[in-house]
Design goal:
Helix content of chain B: under 10%
Structural class of chain A: mainly beta
Shape of chain B: globular
Helix content of chain A: under 10%
Distance between the termini of chain B: 41 Å
Number of strands of chain A: 11
Order of helices and strands of chain A: EEEEEEEEEEE
Largest sheet of chain A: 7 strands, mixed
Distance between the termini of chain A: 37 Å
Strand content of chain B: over 45%
Radius of gyration of chain B: 13 Å
Number of helices of chain B: 0
Oligomer: heterodimer
């Protein structure tokens, strides 16, 4: 089966600019996650969707980060305006349902904020 | 608060030797644990999991041990190969129905030829 697709793979922007990342999960996976992975650290959950509804966004910096999954399939994560500390890899993952527990990750989108 | 940590940030082993990667967790209510492997430029990849009602689970060349008394998890890799070089993360599901997966900081495994 096809894996989790993410784009772009790399993005360089200046602080205060905006950026958007796209994710296409594995077909049939109802649950979609966005994680932020800062260099040298483990992934940190930003937001979790079940179909097109938000399950958990408690760690999403809502003043600058937003995410949507309008049709319950693809998802977009946006940062506006970006800060230097947002430099990280943004990982998208999916699972069949919340109880499946095993996440399948995409390759990630590496963001550098100058 | 909830946290998952690792004892050693870097581990170097000789090819063919066994590797042991350790992890401590703090949430005694966690009911499910997973080990992920992350190679450079890739997302984490599932290796093996274990539920809290078990203390050992074996896969192909990998074994996970869970000691709930001291809240410790370990990943054993038998006959370590160069392809095992990666960062290994333990992750926990803290239970409570939220199905949240919390990752530790990771251990980088170097395999010397």
């Amino acid at each position: 089966e096809a894996g989790v697709a993410q784009s772009p793979r790399y993005k360089i922007i200046e602080k205060r600019q905006s950026v958007a990342f796209w994710c296409n999960p594995i077909s049939g996976h109802a649950t979609l996650y966005w994680y932020q992975q800062i260099l040298g650290q483990g992934p940190k959950l930003l937001i979790q969707f079940q179909n097109n509804g938000v399950v958990d966004d408690s760690q999403l910096p809502k003043d600058r980060f937003s995410a949507e999954r309008l049709k319950g399939v693809d998802s977009t994560l946006k940062i506006q305006p970006a800060k230097l500390e947002d430099s990280a890899v943004y990982l998208c993952a999916s699972s069949l349902n919340p109880g499946a527990n095993v996440l399948t990750f995409g390759a990630g989108s590496r963001l550098t904020v100058l | 608060g909830e946290s998952v940590g690792l004892h050693l940030p870097t581990l170097s082993v000789q090819e063919g030797d066994n590797s042991i990667i350790n992890c401590a967790y703090s949430n005694s209510a966690s009911d499910y644990f997973i080990w992920y492997k992350q190679e450079s430029g890739k997302g984490p990849q599932f290796i093996i999991d274990i539920r809290s009602n078990m203390d050992k689970r074996q896969g192909q060349r990998v074994t996970v041990l869970l000691n709930k008394t001291v809240k410790h998890l370990s990943l054993q890799i038998a006959a370590t190969q160069p392809g095992d070089s990666a960062v290994y993360f333990c992750a926990e599901n803290p239970g409570g129905g939220g199905f949240k997966t919390i990752f530790g900081a990771g251990t980088r495994l170097f395999v010397k030829a």
